Amino acid sequence: MTTSDTATEVEAHPLLAQLVARHGRWVDAENIADWRVNQEGDNVLLFAGDPIRFPEALDVAVVLPELQKASKSSGKPFAIAVAVPEGAEALALKFGSNRWPTLMFFRDGQYVTTLSGMHDWSDYLNLLAQALDMPVSRAPTVGIPVVSATFNAGGNSSTCH
To answer: Hey, what domains does the chain have and what are their CATH numbers?
Structure first.
């Protein structure tokens, strides 16, 4: 994928394709590093998931541009991107997210927070304002695979207790 990809080049629900065509761009494992490096200001990446498994995803896709308008009018604009459905689960896990749908917030390419699920409008506005006021942080992952060690350095079986 390149930044010039259009909504018709990604296999996705028509509502997600329309969201990208009108308001954002597709992001996947191949272009996320470039997307993050070239960011300015606040950005929201929608992880919609499969709309059949997660019907709220389409609701979030409809509400997201309205949240963008409301946020812009309050002086806190953000750009929109949508994770390409194929491979979105693996990409979301890299940032410690496993709930669908999820809005993942970035500022100048740095992770900020996530907001999962669908919410009432007034709750969404409050949660959005909180997310946009948060400082950048570390994604809630350890960054390395966590495995259970059954042997200590000497090769002997070891337990904690």
So the answer is: 7-133 (3.40.30.10)
Which pTM does this prediction carry? 0.82
pLDDT, one tens digit per residue, over 61-88 is 999 999 999 999 999 999 999 999 999 9
Separation between Cα atoms, residue 144 and residue 161, nearest integer Å: 25
Contact 95, 27 (CB under 8 A): no
Q: Which residues pair with 28 in a beta bridge?
A: none
Measured between alpha carbons, how far is 16 from 13 in angstroms, rounded to an integer? 5
Contact 38, 83 (CB under 8 A): no
Residue 6 pLDDT > 60, yes or no?
no
C-beta contacts of 142-149 below 8 A and 24+ residues apart: none
Burial code (b: 16+ CB inside 10 Å, e: under 16) for 42-68 equals bbbbbbbbebeebebbbbbbebbeebb
The answer to whether residues 21 and 6 touch, using CB atoms and an 8 Å cutoff, is: yes
